[in-house]
Amino acid sequence: MWWFVINSMTAGGKTNRQIEKEEEEFVFVRLGIPPNLPDTIVFARGPSPGKGDGCFTTHNIPRGLPILVEPVLFSVIAPSDEAKVRQALGRLPQHQRDEFRQLSGPPRTQNPTDLQSFQTNSISNDPTGTRVEREGIFPQASRFNHSCVPNAYFAWGNGARSVTIYALDEISPGQEIFISYIHWSGTWTWARRRGELSYWGFNCDCRICQADRARSEERRRAMRQLQINIDGTVNRYDKQYLYYKSLLEYYDQEGLTYPQPAEIQGLAAQCALDISAQGGMDAASWAKKALTHAQQELELDIVANGRDSPVVRKSKTSARRMRQAQR
Predict the structure, then answer these.
(1) Closest alpha carbon to 230 in 216, 248, 217
(2) The pTM is what?
(3) What is the DSSP string of 141-178?
(4) Among 14, 158, 180, 286, fewest CB within 10 Å belongs to which?
(5) Cβ of 60: how many Cβ atoms within 10 Å?
(6) What is the distance between the alpha carbons of residues 92 and 143, in angstroms, rounded to a whole number?
(7) Continuous H helices in the chain
(8) pLDDT, tens digit, for every residue of 232-275?
(9) 52 near 38, Cβ under 8 Å?
């Protein structure tokens, strides 16, 4: 016991947990997010041109503020199938089964099956789209419309028993709140995004799918090439770092703030730390860059996931490691 306590202390006399807590609180103070969030409804349903209904803000929503916290109606282990959905529905009281069956099914489908309605409205608990563990139904969250340049992000929390939608940017009163149905799409082309979204029966009319499509396609082509360059420069940390910086600039031009930019900030932090570990006159400068990138990763993760998230715990640990490397 005493061995653990002593070795978890830093040179400054603080435990690793204390350092990570300080990093987290620093982000919340900088963002201006209050510790006790008011229990206020900040959006309302209303007509959305070309989309039926949508969700619109009724208050000014600061970046990082929760817009909706909703308990899961029911969930299944992914991938979903008819038997799993039927079994989960069978455990619900009748009024909740009725609530589920009021949700829309696939487009141009009359009398959709329960599985079709589930797959049309379910939300997965994996931000990368590659390691899905559960898919759940959240009747209110499923009513938010899609944009390839969203201003909000959904995150599972409370042990996979609820979902929270957070503001990725400041949203003014009267603006529509958008999430991305394909938030793992990253550098996908317009044609690939359009094909993926065809399941929901609509064509996205966001900026990068319409007015800025040509420039967006050029940027994404450059981003894919940068990723190839990164993969081809193993252990060339100086070159990799420059590629990561360029990727972040392209994501900023695309208007995409999460989740890929957070991941790239973390990779840039580790890259800068590896350069610092090689020594030399600039070692301290690189260690400082590593901490800056790690703090930016933590801020992005907190904005999109709040406190109750293993993603945030991981980025807090990374920021603490980068801070300790400066000593």
Answers:
(1) 248
(2) 0.88
(3) GGGSEE-SS-SEEEEEETTTTEEEEEESS-B-TTPBPE
(4) 158
(5) 14
(6) 21
(7) 2-7, 16-31, 82-90, 94-101, 114-121, 190-197, 213-231, 237-254, 260-277, 283-305, 310-324
(8) 998 899 999 999 999 999 999 999 999 999 999 999 999 999 99
(9) no
